[in-house]
Write a structure and sequence with these properties.
One of its GO terms (molecular function) is FAD binding. It comes from Kibdelosporangium aridum. InterPro entries: FAD-bd (IPR002938), FAD/NAD-bd_sf (IPR036188), RIFMO-like (IPR050641). It is a single chain. Helices cover 36% and strands 28% of the residues. Strands 1, 2, 8, 9, 10, 11, 17 and 18 form an eight-stranded mixed β-sheet that branches. The chain has an eight-stranded mixed β-sheet with strand order 6-5-13-14-15-12-16-19. The protein has a three-stranded antiparallel β-sheet with strand order 3-7-4. Strand 9 and strand 10 form a beta hairpin. The two termini are 42 Å apart. Bound molecules: 8-demethyl-8-dimethylamino-flavin-adenine-dinucleotide. 8-demethyl-8-dimethylamino-flavin-adenine-dinucleotide (RFL) binds next to helix 1 and helix 8.
Length: 385
């Protein structure tokens, strides 16, 4: 049995755990991150890319944005294609005038790990937490040893163990839609994000770097990610993106394929005893509006400030209010993600109900194309977290 004490034990070295750990280290608080994967694995795990203005502020104000500012790309435009034609929304001139910064999540994670170690933090990679004791602030590890601290942050994502230690209500929604999430070794085909609505289903294009581009294809639930060859994938992307009409896609090998089900869950509360959840552990959001990593950073900042106020100043109030502070912001993001799902997907079929819903979808898109008030609403919520 090995025992190690730290003020805060953090389960998981994703964006939530690493931002939390970095802010706590800057406050002089001892913390230890326990991560089940290797350092190489978490530094190469491609996921998010679109960082909202609030995320860039959090990273900048806490000295965590050097790589982001050096290598991130600014995006301020997205476009919609479909039966209604094509239109662009330049959101830097809409809503609050904010933009996205595109910086691959794995690069951010790499930067955050380096800075956390630089600040004197400790990370145990290849170490799996099996159970969390929320009363004694303890982590039970797979090798049978136990780590104890004063507080535990559950930042272990949607498949972690920390959620199980919080006796909370879990509100769950399966949106009934799946995306085939692809990474192509190919330069972006378009300057910005493209959302294509087609009778075959939704297709999306999101720039990542000069040589790698993310694409999405709506597929039936349970679809086998290896069912299609690269050629079939590109053919379908061409059809749904209407490449014949609007211009060819820049193709290349598909280097990653996975199925992402559009599901959401929110826990309430997101704390119990000494345990506090942040990021995907607290709430899972469908990637339709690219909000997951941004919510993770938002909650990590609120939790870091609350823990620092408790540990350094002896004031427990912000920690007591943690769930009440974070949950309304999570629900706001969930609401917009849900709205996006309905904007991007209509039901298949020609029965009256399906046609009715598809007609509403088209009306929604036309309103977004034509109404400045609708565009302002979109821009504010698209970037906001
Ligand atoms: P993470 O990143 O999943 O990190 C959790 C960490 O905990 C570790 N872990 C454990 N460690 C020890 N013991 C255990 N028992 C453990 N169980 C798990 C894991 O190994 C892992 O390292 O959660 P975090 O920090 O909450 O961050 C959440 C984000 O990663 C996630 O919300 C986003 O990636 C979602 N997302 C996007 N978000 C955006 O804001 N913008 C985007 O453009 C965007 N695109 C995406 C996405 C997610 C995607 N997938 C794969 C679902 C695109 C995709 C395809």
């Amino acid at each position: 049995m090995s025992t190690l004490s730290a003020d805060v034990l953090i389960c998981g070295a994703g964006p939530a755990g690493l931002v939390l750990g970095n802010i706590l280290r800057a406050e002089g608080i001892r913390c230890l991150i326990v991560e089940r994967q290797s350092r190489a694995h978490v530094q190469s795990r491609a996921r998010a890319g679109f960082l909202a203005a609030n995320s860039v502020r959090i990273l900048s104000e806490n000295g965590l944005a050097e790589g982001l500012h050096a290598n991130g790309q600014h995006h301020d435009t997205c476009a919609f294609r479909g039966d209604h034609g094509e239109f662009e929304l330049k959101y830097s001139g809409l809503g609050r005038g904010e933009i996205h910064t595109v910086y691959p999540q794995q690069d951010l994670v790499r930067d955050l790990i380096a800075e956390f170690l630089n600040r004197g933090g400790e990370i145990r990679f290849n170490t799996e937490v099996q159970e969390i004791d929320p009363h004694d602030a303890a982590l039970l590890l797979a090798d049978g040893s136990r780590l104890t601290g004063r507080f535990v942050a559950g930042c272990d994502g949607q498949h972690g163990v920390s959620r199980q230690a919080v006796p909370a209500q879990v509100y769950h929604r399966d949106h009934g839609v799946s995306w085939f999430a692809l990474l192509a070794q190919a330069p972006p085909s378009l300057a910005g994000v493209m959302y294509a609505i087609h009778p075959n289903g939704f297709a999306g294009h999101m720039a990542r770097t000069a040589t790698v581009t993310r694409y999405y294809l709506q597929v039936p639930q349970g679809f086998d990610p290896n069912a299609w060859s690269d050629k079939q994938i590109w053919d379908e992307l061409h059809v749904r993106m209407r490449a014949d009409q609007y211009g060819e896609l820049r193709t290349g090998p598909i280097i990653e394929r996975r199925i992402v089900d559009m599901t959401s869950h929110v826990m309430d509360p997101i704390q119990h005893g000494t345990l506090f959840l942040a990021g995907d552990a607290a709430s899972l959001i469908s990637p339709s509006a690219a909000k997951g990593a941004n919510l993770a950073l938002m909650a990590a900042e609120v939790l870091a400030r609350a823990l620092a106020t408790q540990i350094n100043l002896g004031d427990a109030q912000p920690l007591i209010r943690y769930s009440a502070e974070v949950l309304p912001r999570i629900w706001r993001a969930q609401e917009f993600s849900h709205w996006m799902i309905n904007l991007l997907h209509g039901p298949f079929g020609n029965d009256s109900h399906s046609v009715f819903l598809r007609s509403l979808q088209r009306a929604r898109l036309e309103s977004l194309r034509d109404s400045r008030a609708h565009q302002d609403f979109f821009a504010e919520n698209y970037i906001g977290v």
